[in-house]
Structure formats: structure tokens, C-alpha cells
Amino acid sequence: MISQEDALAKILAAIKPGPSQSIALADSVGSYASDGLLAKVPLPGFDNSMMDGYAVVATDTRSPTPIRVVGEQPAGPDRRLSMAKGEAIRIFTGAPMPSGADAVIMQEDVTAREGTITCQEAVERGENIRRQGSDLCIGQRLLSAGDCITPGRIGLLASQGVTSLNVHAAPRVAVLSTGDELQALGADLQPGQIYNSNGPMLQAQLQKLGVRNVTLIHCGDTLEATVSTLNTLAETNDVIILSGGVSVGDHDFIKPALAQIGMPPEIWRVRMKPGKPFLYAHRDAPRPLQVFGLPGNPVSAYVTFTLLVRPALLRLMGANASALRPRCIPVRLREALDARGDRPHYFRGYIDEGGTFTSHGLQRSDALFALSKANALVCIQPDHPLAAGDLAQAILLDL
Ligand code: AMP
Ligand code: MG
Predict the structure, then answer these.
(1) Candidate of 176, 178, 180, 182 to mutate for ligand 1, largest count of ligand atoms within 8 Å of Cβ
(2) Which ligand is nearest to the CA of 220?
(3) What is the rounded average pLDDT of the residues 238-261?
(4) Strands 194-195 and 182-183, how do they pair?
(5) pLDDT tens digit sequence for 364-394
(6) Which residue of 194, 232, 324, 367 is surrounded by the most CB atoms within 10 Å?
(7) CB-ligand 1 contact for 274 (6 Å cutoff)
(8) Cβ distance 11 to 280 under 8 Å?
(9) 3-state class (DSSP) for residue 368
(10) Residue nearest to atom 11 of ligand 1 (CA)
(11) What atom in ligand 1 is closest to the CA of residue 300?
């Protein structure tokens, strides 16, 4: 059995980011930049007013003498106004500064009467002016390769007038649910059948990662069906995530089927609980193909996806190395947790507003209800039980 760390290192070493392609800015959220990008437009683009008020010469605001208002500059086309000492120009938020002014006084701080203002407060030189380039200079780095395109970055790129950018192509992913007991949602359950919950759950985990191109498919427990389904999926997908059939039961056909299509698993059985039967296979030609075999038990499928498949997909999507690590926060344990056995145990549980982690419900690999209540995992090493009140690192789940 391989450790989870070694399994992940082996998987990541086998995966290269997908090809670079141009994408419309409007469709790019959740993608990862394949090229860096530098600023072409400074922010702000020109000196402008931070307030609705009056453009003034700062020293004029220290005296009670009325200042004559000689023009008005709203946000919009630059009227190229100019003013002299002893004069003011009515100005609005975002409007270009007139020449001759060196500050803006808020309208709340003046008394306006018959084309003049009298200042109630003094302003300093430069006050309430947003200087050209004070947020972002031309040539400053906007994006590095591997950066996620977030809504904030889309705003920044839009401020540059960018309409498209280069990102790594999104992988095409098939989710294959295996098992003769699986019934499609919407159909009636016959005795012995269960609904296929792994398919929609894994699809949702993919959606949370930004993978939208997902095919869901089912196949029964025969070697022939498994081989032919895998062959078909391999033609049009970059990744196959399958669940069930990866153990050693008489009805588990994934390993022999992979061997038959020339992809014997490179990893099988990982020292973790839940998730031990996890397997991984890949090939580079004729096209790169990654196959992740997750255990059929829903909690095992969920946890192995989170810890082993998620970082692999992020690598494929071109994410930088720091994004591959799960997001962790320190928590205090509400109760003692003991791994019992020889594998690191990922407890499912809930972190409350106070930062206390409570392991929730049945800690069994089929206990989907308990999983549905969890917002975090805490890993307990076999030889390191923790007591109530101890600090631990919790892995935040993508909710
Ligand atoms: P397996 O790994 O195929 O031996 O399956 C282990 C357990 O997971 C069995 O109880 C299966 O019925 C269950 N299981 C397998 N696939 C799914 C699925 N897609 N949805 C829900 N449960 C499943
Ligand atoms: Mg099965």
C-alpha cells in the first residue's frame, strides 16, 4: 500500500497542464492563465475626483473668503477646464481634475451661495484626488501563468479593455458509475437496487472546481461492458473518474478491464481511511488520458476525489502549485479522535463559528447523511490520537 502523499506525488508527476487556448473574458471565470499579462492602461487612467464637491487650490480653503465657482466638470468627457487661485470648479466623483486645482473639497464641507463657496473645513494639497497610476502602473503584472481567473481578476482585466485571454483548455471529464445495483434517478427502485448517488456527487465536485464539460455514464458489472465503456470514453475524454468495482470482489472488473485496454493501474490501494481501494492509471499516447478509480462507497469516493483527484485536475487545468494544496485552518476538537487501525483517518465533521470541529454522525464510508452535514475533514494519524480541546488542522471542503 502506498501512502497518500506518495500517491499524490506520483499522480502529479504524470500530469502536464492541458494546451493553451484563447477564451473570451466573459467565459473565463474559473480557468487558469497559461500566459502572464502586464498592464497597458494605468489605474486610475487620469487624475480624478474621489468626491462630489469642488476642485480648489488647497491654500484657499484655509480662509473664510468666498471662492468663485467658474465651471462644472461631471464624470465623462474631459471639458479641459482650468482655474486659477481664488477660483473653484464644481466636480463629481470620477470626473477629470481641471488644471490649476490641487485638491477637492467635499460638498458637505462648503456653503454654496450665488456662484461662490465658503469652506467650512480646510483640505490639504492632493486631498480627495485619485492620482493617475496610483493603483496600477503601466507594465505592472496583472496575471502570472497558473493564476486562477477570479471575478476580481476579470474586473482588473476588463479595466484594461481585454476581451480575450490565454488559458489552459478545460479537461473533458467522464464520470463512470459502475455497479449492477445502481438505478437511475427518477426510476423506481427494485429490491436490491440503490440510486446512483456518486455520479451526481462527483459531477457537483467537478463543477465546484470549474470543470463544466462532464459526461455521466453507467455500466454494469461485466468485464465486456467495462472494457467497451472505457474504450468509448477514452476516445473523447481527457479524464475518466469511475466509482465502484476497484476492490477485489468477484464483481469488481475495473483492474482487469484497465489491463485489457493497456492501462494497468500504476497505483492501487492507498493508506488512507476512507479510500483504500483508490486506483490510478494514465497513458500519454495517442492522447493523454488519466483514469481515477474511486471506491464505490460514497464517502470514500468523496474523500478520495477531494484529496487525490482535485489536485490532479487542478494541475491539468494549469493551476499553480500553491492552488493544488487543500485549504486548511486550525480548529479545536470538541471530542477526542482516534484513528484506530494502521491508516490515517479522515474524520468528517463540522466547524462552528467559534472554530471548534465536531466529527459528525456515523464515520462510516457509506454514511452519506453524515457527509452531507460536514464542512471539513480532520486527519488523525494512527499513532497520534488527539484529545478533546486539542488543536488540529482541518481541510475545508468545497461547499
Ligand atoms: P464497490 O466499490 O463497487 O464494491 O461498491 C462499494 C459500495 O458502494 C457498495 O455498497 C455499492 O453498492 C456502493 N456504490 C457503488 N457505486 C455507487 C454509486 N454510484 N452510488 C452509490 N453507491 C454506490
Ligand atoms: Mg460494485
Answers:
(1) 182
(2) 2
(3) 96
(4) parallel
(5) 999 999 999 999 999 999 999 999 999 999 9
(6) 367
(7) no
(8) yes
(9) helix
(10) 296
(11) 8
- Please tell me if the CB atom of residue 311 comes closer than 6 angstroms to any atom of ligand 1: no
372 and 311 share one domain: no
Query: Count H helices, E strands: the chain?
Result: 9, 27
177 shares its domain with 68:
no
If you average pLDDT over residues 285-304, what whole number do you get?
Answer: 97
Distance CA 210, CA 212 (A): 6
Nearest ligand 1 atom to alpha carbon 297? 8
Note the pTM of the prediction, 2 decimals. 0.94
Give the CATH number, domain containing residue 84: 2.170.190.11
Place of cell 447523511: 369
CATH code of the domain in which 358 resides: 2.40.340.10
Q: Which helix (H) or strand (E) holds 175?
A: strand 173-178
My answer on whether 246 and 352 are in the same domain is no
Percent of the chain with pLDDT over 70: 100
Among the atoms of ligand 1, which is closest to the Cα of residue 243? 16
pLDDT for position 43? 98
H helices of 84-197, in order, are 151-159
As beta bridge partners, residue 33 has 167
110-127 mean pLDDT? 98
* C-beta atoms surrounding 206 within 10 Å: 22
Of 334, 340, 323, which Cα lies nearest the Cα of 359? 334
Residue 182: strand pairing partners: 194
Amino acid identity of residue 385, one-letter, is P
192 plus 213 within the same structural domain = yes
**Spatial separation of the C-alpha atoms in residues 399 and 393, rounded to whole Å:** 18
* Ligand 1 contact via 180 beta carbon (within 6 Å): no
Does 179 contact ligand 1 (Cβ within 6 A)? yes
Give tens-digit pLDDT for 325-363: 999 999 999 999 999 999 999 999 999 999 999 998 899
